[in-house]
Amino acid sequence: MQTSSKTIEDADRRLPLKGDERKGRKPGRRSDINGNLERLIGRHFLEYVPPTQKKMEPTRMCVVCCSRRKPDGKKVRKETRYHCPDCDVGLCVVPCFKDYHTKTYY
Ligand SMILES: [Zn+2]
Ligand SMILES: [Zn+2]
């Protein structure tokens, strides 16, 4: 059995990814980050929940976390100090902010 195995690796094209330097994650699985995502996020900004007279450090429930359920069926309750003023929802910095603005089913 003879196979002339000249593998021409022309498929190794690397696309220059802009704005993808925030990968401080654990090695392992690559996350699919595409350009659209970046653009979507660009419209909205994460901000601190503004302090009120009652609370200096108010928190909001994260809508993304709270839309999930734990494996045991309980609702996830997660408070965050951040929100998106445009959407008027509380969001964790990571990964919920990104999730919320890139997935349409919330
Ligand atoms: Zn969250
Ligand atoms: Zn938003």
Condensed summary:
This protein has three helices and five strands. It has 106 residues and is of the alpha+beta class.
Your description of this structure?
There is one protein chain. This protein is an alpha+beta fold and 106 residues long. The protein has a domain at 50-102. 19% of the residues lie in helices and 10% in strands. It has three helices and five strands; from the N terminus they run H-E-E-H-E-E-E-H. The strands form two sheets. The protein has a three-stranded antiparallel β-sheet with strand order 1-4-5, with no helix packed on it. Helix 1 packs across helix 3 (96-102). The longest helix is centred in the middle third of the chain and has 9 residues, at 35-43. The N and C termini lie far apart (56 Å). The site of one zinc ion has 6 residues, from helix 2.
Work out the strand percent.
Answer: 5-15%
SS elements, strand count: 5
Poorly predicted runs of 5 or more residues:
none
Query: How far apart are the first and last residues' alpha carbons, in Å?
Result: 56 Å
Give the averaged pLDDT, no decimals.
76
Helix content class: 10-25%
Which small-molecule species are bound to the chains here?
zinc ion
Shape: extended
What is the rounded Rg? Answer: 20 Å
How large is the count of helical segments?
A: 3
How do the strands of the widest beta sheet line up side by side? 1-4-5
How do the SSEs run, as a string of H and E? HEEHEEEH
